[in-house]
Amino acid sequence: ARVSRGSVSRDAMSAEAPKTDPVAPVEQKVVTTELIQKYLNENEQLILAILENQNVGKLQECVQYQARLQQNLMYLAAVADATPK
Description:
The protein is 60% helix and 0% strand. The chain is an all-alpha fold and 85 residues long. α2 runs antiparallel to α3.
């Protein structure tokens, strides 16, 4: 699902899950700017799907998106903690 500035795509409007592959833990992947951007883009789509499902009263559907968002945020936090300052 892609989002352009100021509008939500048909995929996000239908509240479908983002179409991404599971991402390995920090120690199994080389962390690149592109990988971080992939997570940020997926998080954007997850948030949009959560909001859309909440707006139409499908709260149970939000659970899987919230779990994936939490997983992604924990990964990004681990990367930030492991990055030399």
